[in-house]
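As practice, study what follows.
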Amino acid sequence: MPRRRLITWIFYLTLALIAALLGYKVYLNFFEQDFAATHAVQVKRIETLLDNREHYRFAVLGNINNSVGIFERKIIPRLNQGDYDFVISAGNAVSSGGEDKYRALFGTLSHLAIPYLLTFGTHEESRIGGFRFYDHFGPYHFSFKAGDTRFTFLDSTGTTDYGWQRRWLGELLTPSSPRNHFVFSAAPLYPVDDTGPGQLDSDARLPDELRRSLTRLLEDAGVDAVFSSELSLFDRQTHGDTDYVVTGGAGGLVLGRGRSRYHFVAVDVDGDSVTIEEKPLDIGQHPFWRTAESLWFFIYSLFYVGYLNFILLVAILVALAIWLKRKLFTEPDYYPDFDIDPDADDGTPLRTALFTNNYLPFIGGVPISIERLKRGLQQLGHPLLIVAPRYGQPSAADEADVLRLRSLLPLGKHQEFRLANVFSRRLVTRVRRFAPDIIHVHHPFWIGRAGQLLGRLLRVPVVYTYHTRLEHYAHYVPLPGPLFRNFISHALVKRFANGCDAVIVPTSSVEEYLRIIGVKKPIFVQPTGIEYERFARVDRDAVQALKTRLGLDDKRVLVSISRLSREKNIGFMLDGLRRLHNAGEHDAHLLLVGEGQDRKRLEARIRTLGLERHVTLAGAVAPEDIPLYCHTAELFVFASRSETQGMVVLEAMATGLPVVVIRSSGIEDIVRQGSNGYKTAPDTQAWSQAVAELLDDAARRRRMGQQAAAFAADHRIERFAHNVLRAYRYALAARRKRAAKGSRRQR
């Protein structure tokens, strides 16, 4: 069957199931008989039946367990067709004490043509079932006299205090008691050899002292028989003149061999004569029907656990139907619309509003990327407005093209992240006045989400740049790490990206990731541009002065630029550096540029590894000085696995440095193995070996540095801005095309 046709059938089947469930719920609530204090009615019937009678017959069953296949379909017809006057359950008539199970049992018992009574057992009490038993049937322990016989029911679950029951039972067992007396206790009063069918549940065992005192009372009073359930077998013992019968084969699971088999017990009373006889049943239930029965009770139970659960069930089915409808009737389009030409430029400047959760003076990959995009677009004559948090008092120059939102809460040890006030009226007013043609968001939450909502409000296309692998930032989020890392982060990105008109990613591997998690919007691969000339050409005297100031004159320097935080994996590089020094071949020195909340931990790690003379933590460095730091080194090293592009790697290449990195998304696409650098597994031995090879071979290092610079030259800011404009124009043209198609439909 074709996939589309199969989904069509599933869709209509779901609709039919929703209709059936709603109809069944209406039926159960308005037409199914309710029941309360059932034992009062049944006792009255038994008293009437036994009035002035010396001979009668009744059946005792244990462990019915809501069985339809055995009890309802096999045993009840035999009881109705036999000469039994009434039926008594010795306990565990339900599989559990849930409301659904009690209602199902009541439906089953309604097929009996004779009266019935239930003993309160562990199954009846489970899942707060005692309250339901009391409402639907009656007290947990009770006694009544019918004819010349007394029937006494004990609560062996402990719900009723045992001391009280013992006193109550002692008062019942007087010398003037009726001729016959039958007692029902779900838990056996004498130990039973249960090695065959399985051990008796500890919850169903009565305390030894209680059992001894009860059996003494019963036997001294000459009780005829005590009937119990709990075990799926038949057992009969006689102590004094009292028979103790365990019967547990009325529908629950049995082994089908030895004493564990389907059966019930027939009790024949003729004056003083009492005959107790097991009635084995040569029947069984196929595993398929037992499974089907369990499934039916599961469905049946959904209607008796409350309206909220029922509404939830229907809501899930409605959601499934909507999902199927979309699968059926929404034409999926995973490709860009090739009828749209993103290179068509009518010369009209595009007014762009960029929304970001962090921006200069905060130093990071996203702020630097936005600043370069701003510079490139403005050089091409496109007006810009940047919406970002406020880090201090804004300058007049800032206010010209940056809307600073007041910070509500600084986050991070060094307050590097600011939770901005996105509820400010200034935000909406300023953006409306700017009248953007495009809204470009750089984060899938907070200010980025505000930009997305404003795009919908102003009916402006929204373009999203995916900068950050959120799953690597789980340690910043006040949620269980695995929950955020494995589910929430990916779901957040997917939902946000699919709510935009287009997505820009820095590398092809990131595009692949977005497709895997379910992003269906057009994706444009565009690495962030770099200021190539600024990194390629520096003042050699300034470089030498910096080396002298840092004490690096006679050292072989490895440089790395990174925020000092856990997701940057700096500890890995320290371990690799320790391995290099342990080999004794290279006196390499790591120059680490950057600041962050992990500084103290890294300083402690450096001391632990004995690398104090071999590592320099340069701290935060002004962006314009970064090229000088790169030119102090022989190669660039990097270990982060949380990058989407690794812009600092490209910048280091622009200075003519070969690179040694760990394989990861973003990095994979810009480092060409053996050409402009080395990519290694996340293994310190492999990483340090690659570093050693480059330090050993000056000619290779020089050749790979030249190839790195040539590769970086293809990522200038001018090309970056031009390619981002292509994504803008595509989003605008696609929005106009959809609007035109919608207006034609309305006609």
In short: Residues 635 and 657 are 5 Å apart (CA to CA). The chain has a mean pLDDT of 85. The longest strand covers residues 263-270. The domain at 33-193+210-285 is CATH 3.60.21.10 (Purple Acid Phosphatase; chain A, domain 2).
